[in-house]
UniProtKB/TrEMBL annotation:
PROSITE patterns: CYTC. Signal peptide: none annotated. PANTHER family: BLL4483 PROTEIN (PTHR33751:SF11), CBB3-TYPE CYTOCHROME C OXIDASE SUBUNIT FIXP (PTHR33751). It holds the Pfam family Cytochrom_C. Residues 18-115 form the Cytochrome c domain. Keywords: Heme, Iron, Metal-binding. Gene3D superfamilies: Cytochrome c-like domain (1.10.760.10). This is Cytochrome c553.
Length: 159
């Protein structure tokens, strides 16, 4: 019986508290919302810059490749390959999934026009003094220069 009185008293207190609070009016009038979104190249490139650097110089510890100075055709081709599934990397596939061709060309053209700031090739050459003529060197087989229009980018570029 004490329990019943306790519960009854609790419900009564709750009812009194609800009566003390004034009801708040809710508007049912629709509010106009702007659907215009600014869409600039700078905004589009923010996603790229998160991994590839602000000007496409490459990411942290060279994990993400540089994009600056690579041919627009090569960059566009790589974006298309991520999009159509012939090249696999989950983050890139996600990023390009719904991009149209014009968007991908715009991004590729931007990065192709950027200058890669790196040390001159001469400064990066290994010291080969003491290496016998004809012996293999670490750079053998690497693409150091690429012909114009080639779909293969150089591994190192001359400034």
């Amino acid at each position: 019986m004490v329990l019943a009185l306790g519960l009854g008293g609790g419900f009564a207190a709750l009812a009194q508290a609800q009566e003390a609070e004034p009801a708040q009016a809710v508007s049912a009038v629709p509010v106009a919302v702007s659907t215009t979104v600014n869409d600039t190249l700078d905004q589009r490139l923010e996603g790229c810059a998160a991994c590839h650097g602000q000007q496409g110089q490459g990411g942290i510890n060279a994990y993400y490749p540089h994009l600056a100075g690579k041919s627009a055709d090569y960059l566009y081709d790589q974006l298309k390959r991520f999009q159509n599934g012939s090249r696999h990397y989950a983050q890139m596939t996600y990023m390009v999934r719904f991009m149209d061709d014009a968007y991908m060309h715009e991004i590729a053209d931007y990065y192709a026009q950027q200058k890669l700031s790196c040390m001159p090739v001469e400064a990066a050459r290994p010291d080969l003094s003491g290496v016998p003529a004809g012996a293999p060197i670490p750079a053998s087989g690497a693409v150091v220069t690429a012909e114009s229009g080639s779909s293969i980018p150089p591994c190192s570029s001359k400034q």
